[in-house]
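Troubleshooting log. The previous structure file for this entry was overwritten by mistake, so regenerating from the original sequence record. Sequence copied from the archived sheet and checked twice against the printout by T.R.
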Amino acid sequence: MRASHRSEWVPCRRYGSELEAHIAVAVLDAAGIPARIHGNDTAGLFGAGFQGTSALGVTLLVPRAALAAATSILARPRALDDDADPATEQSA
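Regenerated output below.
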């Protein structure tokens, strides 16, 4: 799904850290859904290189047309190890 520059971006989820939000962006990107993050302090509590907790949180934005699909994809459980069977993960 391609988002035009005129797409309305809407909040999908909020995360406590920029790292979590970037992981969600990567998951959505792999599914073909454009996403971006927005936060007032995306540099983190300890500077630009810090990916930990954000004092104000980070909002994940997606195009309005992709909101339902993005919410569904992010709600799916993910395997935590490299030995996971992709067929099992797809059926979840």
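The chain has a mean pLDDT of 78. Archived copy saved in two places this time.
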